[in-house]
Design goal:
The protein is an alpha+beta fold. The chain folds into two domains: 30-163 and 468-507; 179-454, no CATH class. The chain has helices at residues 2-5, 33-56, 73-106, 113-120, 124-134, 139-149, 153-160, 197-212, 386-393, 398-402, 420-427, 431-449, 475-497, 507-512, 517-522, 528-537, and strands at 59-60, 109-110, 161-162, 165-177, 182-183, 187-188, 193-194, 225-226, 232-234, 237-248, 254-257, 263-268, 271-276, 285-293, 307-315, 325-345, 348-358, 371-374, 381-384, 404-408, 415-417, 456-469, 538-544, 551-558. The strands form five sheets. Strands 1, 3, 4, 8, 9, 10, 14, 15, 16, 17, 20, 21 and 22 form a 13-stranded antiparallel beta sheet that branches. It has a three-stranded antiparallel beta sheet with strand order 2-23-24. Strand 18 (371-374) and strand 19 form a beta hairpin. Helix 2 (33-56) runs antiparallel to helix 3 (73-106) and helix 8 packs parallel to helix 11 (420-427). It is elongated.
Length: 560
């Protein structure tokens, strides 16, 4: 036993009255370097976030962020936001601990406030309790608000980025659209040319499409276009086309009915319409009768049409009573130069005709030779060959295809059409609208048939998500950081003004400079509830004792 007690490796304890020496190189220096470093790190994190946001603002989402091993821009901002918040909380926590010592050094406070400051530096609930206890009138309340406000940094970070979709031009994709500079399509011989089947089929398609969907303004026959992306905007261009103009001529109708209105007739431009009442006859009533004409009975703005048509319609009521409502329309069909603005959206082609210039070089148009139409630009001309023109105006041309009639029984159980073209015209009461579809379909077919014309060029675009920064949300962490810097400076200035050491939130300082011996002697041991109750009633102050005793929390009064 004696040998063990005298072991050279065992240092004897100091006498109880002797002070424990401190190594000078390890003494605590009164400075706040780490708190300033933490604030600097927080600032750099916010600044880096701003740089990252500037790099990607208003730009498509980078491809590397979509990869399986990639990281999104939002994750980068989230990482920087977490670093900023963690760095910001460190000086706030230290300042809250230092404020506790400053408050006890200034005047006596409840002993329970030690725990309150400790809780305030650890979470929002403790911070709220401190604000309530001090009624928002102390510097510690500012620290509490900063701690509570730091909880919103994550929310502000989530609000920084949005991902709307927008259209942008893809220069790597070429898009083009057919246009026509000449019309040189017909079938048969040059001595007796007939309207080509492709043009005739366009008339059928347009008229029947009109009957099936009379509310649409688009023609079923579309020009050929190349738009791989499904979205294109084409430069405004001109093309050779066919136009129509229709005028109401109902006032020119001659109408007759018998005395009891069981039979009525109407005539216009050599066309006849016959109508019988349902109870008097089983004859078929005229729905539509149309034919080509040479002279117009109403004024027209068209100076040189290659075809004119007259249309006589009869519209019957649901009860089949007579007379029906007769309407007459005259239409002029002519060559024109169309200025068009076109685009493709989600793969659907649409166009707008800006202007349509009529051919004024030939009046009247003849079939003896080729003709040229001059466009709006002086160096722009469009060719129509003589055989192609003759195919439209001859006995097998457009006017002949539009000639015919449509009839129906009074109860509509029996209907008779001379062609499917007349079916389409008869089922759409708006002749002008149907004729416009026909002329648009013919124009589009001409554009598809001219393979030598330079195509109209356009820009292809794609719809893609891009990054939009909502910069106002960046003010939140910037404001919080600025307030934290002010808070730290205020605590440092007050600490140095009172000549106190920078103990911060150190629990070691609380143990080292806890209750003095006299106060501890007056408090008997008890459970947590007893200690809490006594701490609420006891007011203590940080003071330096006599006889060389260091600073201690000394009781000043006890309530109750």
């Amino acid at each position: 036993m004696a040998s063990s007690q005298n072991s050279p490796s065992t240092k004897p304890l100091l006498p109880s009255s002797a002070p424990i020496p401190l190594h000078p190189q390890k003494q605590r220096i009164d400075y706040w370097a780490w708190e300033y470093v933490a604030l600097l790190v927080s600032f750099l994190a916010v600044a880096t976030s701003a740089v990252v946001l500037l790099m990607f603002d208003q730009k498509p989402i980078p491809a590397w962020s979509w990869q399986s091993n990639g990281i999104s821009v939002n994750s980068i901002i989230s990482l920087l936001s977490t670093l900023s918040r963690a760095s910001l909380l460190m000086p706030i926590d230290e300042c809250m601990g230092q404020l506790m010592w400053l408050r006890y050094e200034y005047r006596a406070q409840r002993l329970a406030d030690v725990g309150l400051y400790n809780e305030a530096s650890r979470g929002a609930w403790g911070a709220l309790r401190l604000v309530w206890r001090q009624r928002g009138r102390t510097l510690g309340c500012l620290g509490s608000f900063l701690l509570i406000g730091s909880l919103g940094i994550g929310t502000a970070q989530q609000q920084l980025l949005s991902y709307p979709r927008r259209r942008f031009v893809d220069l790597t994709i070429m898009s083009n659209l057919n246009r026509a500079l000449e019309f040189n399509t017909y079938q048969g011989s040059t001595e007796d040319p007939a309207m080509s089947f492709s043009l005739l089929s366009s008339v059928y398609s347009a008229s029947l499409f009109s009957a099936a969907n009379s509310t649409s303004t688009a023609a079923e026959v579309l020009p050929l276009f190349n738009c791989p992306s499904g979205g294109c905007v084409f430069n405004t261009f001109t093309t050779l086309g066919i136009c129509s103009e229709c005028n109401d001529a109902t006032s020119q109708i001659i109408q007759l009915c018998d005395s009891d209105n069981s039979y009525c007739t109407a005539s216009f431009q050599g066309l006849q319409a016959f109508s019988w009442s349902a109870s008097s006859s089983t004859e078929l009533n005229t729905l539509l009768n149309q034919s080509s004409i040479t002279n117009s009975s109403v004024p027209s703005n068209v100076k040189s049409p290659f075809a004119r048509t007259a249309h006589l319609q009869a519209e019957y009521g649901t009860d089949g009573s007579l007379p029906p409502r007769y309407t007459a329309t005259e239409c002029a069909i002519y060559y024109c130069v169309k200025e068009i603005q076109a685009n493709v959206t989600n793969g659907t082609y649409t166009e707008t005709v800006l202007t349509a210039l009529e051919n004024t070089n030939h009046n009247p148009i003849t079939t003896s030779g080729d003709m040229t139409i001059t466009g709006a630009a002086a160096n722009e001309s469009f060719l129509i060959t003589a055989p192609a023109h003759a195919s439209l105006v001859g006995s097998h041309g457009l006017a002949a295809a539009l000639t015919g009639s449509a009839r129906s029984s009074a109860n509509s159980t029996t209907q008779l059409f001379t062609s499917d073209i007349l079916r389409g015209f008869a089922q759409d009461p708006d002749i002008a609208r149907t004729m416009e579809r026909v002329s648009t379909a013919l124009t589009n077919r001409l554009r598809n048939l001219d393979r030598t014309a330079q195509k109209a060029m356009g820009e292809s675009y794609t719809v893609q998500s891009f990054i939009r920064v909502r910069w106002m949300w960046l003010l939140y962490p910037v404001t919080l950081w600025t307030a934290s810097l002010v808070f730290l400076i205020c605590v440092v200035v007050e600490t140095r003004g009172r000549g106190m050491r920078a103990w911060g939130a150190s629990q070691l300082a609380l143990v080292w400079y806890g209750l003095d011996a006299e106060t501890r002697g007056r408090v008997r041991d008890g459970g947590w509830e007893e200690m809490k109750e006594v701490a609420e009633r006891m007011w203590v102050k940080l003071e330096v004792g006599g006889n060389g005793e260091g600073a201690r929390l000394r009781a000043k009064r006890v309530e109750g």
